[in-house]
Amino acid sequence: MSDQTPILQLRGVNKSFGPVQVLKNVDLKVYSGKVTALVGDNGAGKSTLIKGIAGIYPFDSGEYLFEGKPVHISEPRQANALGIEVVYQDLALCDNLDVVHNMFLGREQSKGLILDEITMERRAKETLAGLSVRTLKSVRQQVSSLSGGQRQTVAIARAVLWNSKVVILDEPTAALGVAQTEQVLNLVRRLADNGLAVIIISHNMNEVLRVSDNVACLYLGNLAAQVPAEHLTHSQIVELITTGRSGDMGLHPDVLNGAAL
């Protein structure tokens, strides 16, 4: 796979729920070592697109390519096997468990009938060190004692523990303060610098422009545009989100007229 080949690519994917078409011929390219911001208004189709990539909602039609080869993903285990991990807004952490057991939740390692605590702790420490995480006092802290930013860090570290190639983050800073947001954004950037492909869903346009390499905007189920972040301004992204078009960028007027019906 060349550097110019997307690690993940969607071509003309569609998804309907009954009579409602939620995704309409969506094309998307995601590259290793890059952060792709997925933006759009509520109801634009962001969650459905992410769940389609993750295998929760199989696409009705279109092509799904991974590392340049067509694949068929119909359940989350198949996406996980490729190296695709999703960190949802609720994080799915257990407050009564420590960091190590949360990172290995559902994928515990054992020696016979006994949990291999030494190996799990070592791998947890190595993963956090590889992400330059220094905000945790101990990997044996209970998650209930962690701040919002630390919880987000644990959830992201869990996602990259399994030789991940693509990490999808759903609103990772939505409930965080300024300092914690800074920590998480730095971590997002380090994921890409470590060679992973990152998809981040965010409503904060300042964060999008700061951390992303390119921006993909959904408008009423259509991909309005996917543009390098350096070529976009805050107001252009808002225009794409709210109208599907900004200047020469975005959907053709015929598509917009159809989308508005």
Write up what this structure looks like.
Residues 8-245 form the ABC transporter domain. This protein has 261 residues and is of the alpha/beta class. The chain has nine helices and 14 strands. It has helices at 46-53, 76-82, 99-103, 117-130, 148-160, 178-193, 205-211, 234-243, 253-260, and strands spanning 8-17, 20-30, 35-40, 61-66, 69-70, 84-87, 110-111, 114-115, 166-170, 197-201, 214-219, 222-228, 245-246, 249-250. The protein has a six-stranded mixed β-sheet, with helices on both faces. Strands 2-1-4-5 form a four-stranded antiparallel β-sheet, covered by helices on one side. A hairpin with a 2-residue loop joins strand 7 and strand 8. Helix 5 (148-160) runs parallel beside helix 6. The longest helix is centred in the C-terminal third of the chain and has 16 residues, at 178-193. The termini are far apart.
Spatial sequence of strands, sheet with the most strands: 6-9-10-3-11-12
Instruction: Provide the residue-averaged pLDDT.
Output: 92
Overall shape: globular
At the fold tier of CATH, the topology name of the largest domain is Rossmann fold
Beta-sheet strand percentage? 25-35%
Domains, number: 2
DSSP strand count: 14
The secondary-structure element order is: EEEHEEHEHEEHHEHEHEEHEEH
By helix and strand content, what is the structural category? alpha/beta
What low-confidence regions span 5 or more consecutive residues with pLDDT below 50? none
CATH H-level superfamily of the largest domain: P-loop containing nucleotide triphosphate hydrolases
Percent in helix: 25-40%
* Biggest sheet layout: 6 strands, mixed
Number of helices: 9
Instruction: Report the CATH architecture of the largest domain.
Output: 3-Layer(aba) Sandwich
CATH class of the largest domain: Alpha Beta
Distance between the termini: 41 Å
Keywords: ATP-binding, Nucleotide-binding
GO molecular function: ATP binding; ATP hydrolysis activity
InterPro entries: AAA+_ATPase (IPR003593), ABC_carbohydrate_import_ATPase (IPR050107), ABC_transporter-like_ATP-bd (IPR003439), P-loop_NTPase (IPR027417)
